[in-house]
Amino acid sequence: MYTAMEPTLFLMLIAEVLQDIGSVSALSTTATPPTPGLSLRLAGTYNYCEGRVEVYYKGAWGTVCGNNWDIKDAEVVCQQLGCGNAVEALSWPKFGSGSGKIVLSDVQCKGDEFFLWDCKNPGWEVHNCNHEQDATVLCTDEKYKPAGTEGDVVFMQLVGGPNRCAGRVEVTFFANWRKEVCSEGWDIRDAQVVCNELYCGTALSALSDGSFGKGDSGPLMTHVDCSGSEDYLLSCPYEYRPATCGNYNDAAVICSDSGLTPTGMPDFGSSTIFA
Ligand SMILES: [Ca+2]
Ligand SMILES: [Ca+2]
């Protein structure tokens, strides 16, 4: 059945498709955002992308039982962590057993979920397992573990600029290697929250023209919609887009404490120079 579509709706759909051309997986824009309080890591090795699967749940790290653990489950883990593809899914703790609670078991991923806990499973802490069955994953990538990360810790910085108060916005959400913020809907109110959060004064400009370069991690956030009074950028409404920014540049900010003018030129303080 094909009913007449509103012309405007049709044009919007075309625009959306055109915008996403060039990045196949960018069509998956309906992903649920990272859940505060939940996190994922691979433990027991130096490598962020290889180890015993651990989930941060109710304020503590727990393990995942290897019952029915397979390569599709491992694929979701690797993708969620930004670690490439799954190489191996093990139902035993090759890199050592975990301790603490076993928080997930009998995980049945289709393989395209964005978060391990979105895969079908019997429920939190429902299992009949011990730590000799700790699920373990090896991914294609090799990365050193980020320092000082636990739970849903978020770290934000401005990169590519002359100092810490101007640059491309980079947000690190633990258990998600992606850091970029797409400039779709990026405006001065969003920039103000960034400047506040970094103690950099007032926002002089919200840049969406590719100033300060481009990151290569892939985006964490897009369509950021701050009112300007939020304390943290992640307190603002936003959409989670794990694939790409499409044709959008990375969001960037110039705060007053950077010493730059709103256009990015150094501010020599014209009134004193020409006095
Ligand atoms: Ca499975
Ligand atoms: Ca906005």
Automatic annotation (TrEMBL):
Gene3D superfamilies: SRCR-like domain. SMART domains: SR. Disulfide bonds join C65-C129, C78-C139, C109-C119, C226-C236. Residues 40-140, 156-256 form the SRCR domain. The keyword Signal applies. One of its GO terms (molecular function) is serine-type endopeptidase activity. The keyword Metal-binding does not apply. It comes from the Eukaryota. Keywords: Disulfide bond, Glycoprotein, Repeat, Signal. Residues 1-26 form the signal peptide. Pfam families: SRCR. GO terms for cellular component: plasma membrane. One of its GO terms (biological process) is zymogen activation. This is Deleted in malignant brain tumors 1 protein-like.
